[in-house]
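Protein modeling request. Please complete all fields; requests missing the sequence field cannot be processed.
Requester role: graduate student
Desired output: 3D structure, token encoding
Chains: 1
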Amino acid sequence: MKLKPNYLLIPLITIAVALLGGAFSSMGMNWYDMYVAKPELTPPAWVFPIAWNLIFLMTTISALIIWNKGTSRKFLWFLMSKKPTPNHWMIIWLFVVNAILNVLWSYLFFAKHLISTAFIEMLMLEVTLIALIFATYKISKIASWLLVPYALWVGFASYLTYQLVLLNT
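Delivered output (169 residues):
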């Protein structure tokens, strides 16, 4: 069995997103722990890495399923063995935009301490997730359902961020 480059590329993108987001989060963790008033529903610190690792794993699997189901031959043969169809390009771009927004939230919130801006950005992140769930459903119900926990987590995190806005402005 030949290893397809997308089985390396997509997980590497996920790892890059996780590492960048983690780096920005680390920059502001002291500020968050010491100076930010938190709502009562804030989970303990140990929940976040478990939740995010599971979310990143499920999102990676979803992206791989979508990539493999929606492609035809002869695309950048040296990089990937298949070419995405136009509809799949839209879904791939949604995954890319979602990854950028994921990292951007950590940057805005932890590195820049812009809680209100991070909240607005998080709503855009949720919109990309809902769009991804609906767009992937026609191609793979499994890929779509793998994104639901991510959307639920971001929905909960949006609520927490909104509460942080109210408590800290």
